[in-house]
């Protein structure tokens, strides 16, 4: 039935003036990086639930990520987290990835899980700890070179819990100094993406609390520093797509960490809480791809799309497949927006028509389209079912319980 | 200098028509329960920082709690958490407490840290797991009897992460059924306090999400079931003191878990984030103590005040002492409200005068009062300094690292 | 093309086991009340923008509402607001409605726009003002009788701006007393729906702040008192569908005020901010319609669906049509949920399958279905276009500027 | 008794190492601007309550502001809003102010109360409207020159209500263009302060949504453009003092609009909702006044403190007096922080000691200090009582009802 459904879809969209061929090409080209840590155990502060079959080392994590890519065709790279994914031989790790059809993507330092970092890493009042933390960031630049990655992705978990606990301005200076040193170490073709977070684990203040702080330091550093938007890192009621549009316009949007949330930084499967928000984010990106300014267009083209979730209660690989399908769905819908119609309504100041021109695209069923694309790419029509029907779920059971976790 | 300060304070308050003697008696009578788990290691989902000197078993936790009581005179009981504080011989534990000048207070079951509870405990779709969870609640009633406690304090961490994951109405029924069974098991002089929480660890829905759900089930159960208000378990912008006043009026306020927060359930030291809120909570309680209805007055008199914090980065015992001092400070200030003045302004519909009549009490410095009270009770004037100057901080170092945690 | 699309839709759904005929009947039976005040000028506190063609009196408001019903077939009744819609002869107003194919629905008292109500209406410290306000509520019961309506819908805007300003417990008692008097006056077949609101216009506390307070008073009054859920009246992060399910289970959900919001009580067109939330609300209702308990089923069947928006910048009638279409869309999608599939996955504790079973229904394009239904009902396929193409928009221009507003 | 209290206070603070003389001088030097519109009627979207005695024109507003200054000694300037305060002869207005002992301060344009601005002013898709709006901003620069003011304070109420309604990036460009034109028109000694707001009246997006957007445009414009922080314009859970510290460090904090709120932009009397927040804001400012960088110190010295409230239910002049007293109280407390002690604890990484070093200052009763200062300045000890006892409240009754409102 999906062929018939697709034919109808194509006819409908063509009638609307949508170039379906182009839409298909764009969807095929969408690459979403999955995180190595998304395949390990995770949890809340109350409990990390242990699952059988979770990968025991970086090599197994990449194997799992490769399965997701094989089934979806959309995840050619895998982000790694250091020291969780520290290995003696990065060449070997890269080769392992390559053999499985993927490559290593963003390198993520970890400056929040050692005892010394309790009161801050690169913003710690103790210069010895700051030095150690910055050295770790520099090490990650080296690892990125070693694995041929062009992205170092920085989440600094620093913050304070109480008024007065830290000197806010001094900590800002220390953070800028550390980042400046990292920036200097970047090769020409490498970008550092700077993530911000409204709260947690610092509850009173986080040193990089919002896009404005991430943007400001990126701006002061130079063109190789950009902002990374984690969709769960904002206060309630934030218009995330506005921030996306703003950063695109300033040519400072570097990438995304996709996930979803209802209240705090829940790190749930992307697209499950408010799918319309994801659609509206893609609308801003697609609109920017047609900007008059080549710099804006180029920024939009180079966005690094990454999943960053902590699915604690679901089986890991299926949860990742679901995430990828959800991103594809909203991206596909956003590509169906008739941007000319939207713009005409905006110019005519027709509020209802403009709103409707955006939302009508959201109402289409893009499953026939996505299935057809998968068929054309030689992928299973239903990647989730294909995974469940495969031998992989059983195969990994031999790993036992107590694999990698964070 | 504090004598001179106290003399002035007494003169000032007497002039305002405040019965300082009565205020002093009330402050001396304020009992705040500290939680055994507040003396162990804790953290965020990102990291539990390990401290040297943390108690290694329930006996040592009670020893620490007894030190806090010895220094503040305000913490005669200690809440326990089962199975964290499970022992073979509860009589021995009770005696240990008694010898140290304290007693065991509220018994808190734990239905969130076993693998079976991943998708719910008493609301789990699997009847075997529900049975196990209810049995654990019943066990806690038995333990409460064994330790001569009159409170079982129930936080059910059940919830779901996604729309559709659970059958919301069925889960409600299961929860009510389980609670009914527990209620039946309560001896006449024991209360069950029902805690609610807006989010976490369930991110899509928590089965007891707000005071209304806790109140409704308590109401259906009977007079021995009451609501427990954790000050950090509300959505942003909530008027917590309104809920307190409402529950008092319905004679269903059973107790508090005190802590503070800025964004989510941060579990910081009570009174550090918005001390005025704590003051306003006490204002409602003190006002209810003068209610025309004896039932309301009695409810207010029987409130169980408990600390429930997760101070992850501070030394444990000092953090607890600070919490107690902060609660005393706000309680003392609230006792300085001239309620007649407030009520007259309310009746005269004088908004500014009514607001000012409440807030002027908040502006007084109650340190001289609290110091004088401590002097009269034979306590150190500055319990924090007395602790730091004592041999206890050094003494506990021999416990080493890696004590109890949650 | 919509016939072809509908054929495909029917085939798809039949294959999924959905009884499309039944779905169509249910959608045809969905009645959504529009509010008379939704046709007048409105705005924010900063500015009410005046539009040409806005109705000048209650008769013209009903005429506009009748147009919306004529085009959508879904809005057979019109809510009125007293005194905004006060007329000398309610019989005449009812006949006017009847002639235009609609009837008068819920009667809404207004106790917030007279100078006396500045510090409260039925909770005012002044008994004379309380009497006046209660009398107005009773007058609305009489008006409801006069217009043959069976619903009085109560939003009490009372609250305070400052701590201490009002006596929270006394105000609660006064509110309960007033409602008890109204309840006594209700004829057997009339319901009073009690609305709650988290904030505004009272900024410190609102006397009916949440569903729990509305539920509690409704419970104490009796079966003719129920709770009304306004989708915009909750704190950020609230799971509204949970409250819906909870109230259904307690047989206390009386109706809805639909609208949407991003931050506060924005009163935007329903379904424009987070359409998935509306879908999930309908999921809970449809699920409850199959409950084992006849009382729960009956409650779900008798829900009063009402629009309550303040679309300040859009043309009024088109904004209302859009609202109706959005509600129909999400209701139709929710009817496509395979409830058996959901329940099986819930029982099997398969988190991903259960979530997906709910969300897959959201992904279908229900436009072909809705168009076919309209065709079968003799309605325009596209009610919005039909309106814009009609002579009505021009016709109302003769009303000039400066019509009704709130 | 206050002399005795002050003597004790002085002794206590001197013992703590605080230079009381310096504290007194700083408090005496604190100037807080009151807004002309704060003396007129205001309300919520539901109702503007009309009060007897409200000023009928700009001259009477300034008279009222002068009374507040006469009683508090802290409000030497009055902000004006154009066109609300438009007069034919600004020289006459300035002289009127001078005669009464005050002067005209910040000039605030109004680009939200004309029909043309419904869909935006300087970001409107229509260039004619943008031109009109920018001309109004330029007019305000001229008025500022005419009244010898050095501040133009810009709140642009532009935003959209729905996704797709406006072109976010284009609107950003239009806003920047308009501001650039205004910047060019500024004389050397005039600053433009750029205000941001998270929501309202635009509910989907506001064009200047947060400090980051205001900062970015100010940065691109140059040193005469700075950010204005309205304490009520942030999402829930925001650490406002962090933003303050950040902007100070970047030398871009220009001023404040003080008020308080519990949920949205409630515009209540400053210091009534969470007084500790105001204290913590002043702590950051006072700390920055000792910064090593002269630019940071100078920025902190030049902050323009302004009240911006919409007290709808209170008598106007008393509400303003209360606001001033509340700001003085928190400023005075912040001046009692022993900054050396805080910094030592920060350096020693002693979390509890650092928090306590800040909060202990908040606990002091500064009333004796403020009363002594008033005595020394020849002001009434209790400005509120002095006002109520004066003939002014009765005198203004002759103005009748229906004065200025917004």
UniProtKB/TrEMBL annotation, chains A, B, C, D:
Annotated coiled-coil segments of the chain: none
One Gene Ontology term of the molecular function aspect: L-rhamnose isomerase activity
InterPro entries in alphabetical order: L-rhamnose_isomerase, Rhamnose_iso-rel, Xyl_isomerase-like_sf, Xyl_isomerase-like_TIM-brl
Domain of life: Bacteria
Keyword Isomerase listed: yes
Entry's EC annotation: 5.3.1.14
First-tier enzyme category under EC: isomerase
Occurrences of domain Xylose isomerase-like TIM barrel (ranges): 88-267
Keywords, in A-Z order: Isomerase, Manganese, Metal-binding
PANTHER family for the chain: L-RHAMNOSE ISOMERASE
Alphabetized NCBIfam families for the sequence: RhaI_grampos
Protein name: L-rhamnose isomerase
Source species of the chain: Alicyclobacillus fodiniaquatilis
Record lineage: Bacteria, Bacillati, Bacillota, Bacilli, Bacillales
Underlying gene: rhaI
